[in-house]
Amino acid sequence: MKIVISSHLTFPSRRRRILTSVPTAMIFCFLLLPHAGAQLYTGSVAGTVTDPSGAVISSAHVKLLDEQKGFTFSATTDNSGRYLFRQVPPGSYKILVEAAGFQAQQKDDIKVDVNQNVAVDFGLKVGSSSQVVDVRASGVELQTQDAVTGQVVDRRFVNDLPLVGRSVLDLAYLTPGITEVDTDCSGCMANNFTSNGSRNATADILLDGVSSTNFEQNSGILAPTYVPSVDAVEEFKVQQSNFSAEFGFTGATVVNVITRSGTNQFHGSLYEFLRNEKLDANDWFSNQNGDPRAPLRYNDFGGTVGGPIFKNKTFFFFDYEGTRVRSFASSSAGVPTAAMRAGDFGELCTLDGNTFDGSGLCSDPSRQLWDPYSSSGTQGNVTRSQIIPNNDLSTYISPLTGNSLIDPVASKLMQLFPLPTKSIASATASCSAVNMRNKELVATASTALAMWQTHARVDL
Question: By Cβ atoms counted within 10 A, which residue in 128, 283, 318, 424 is the most buried?
Answer without folding.
Answer: 318
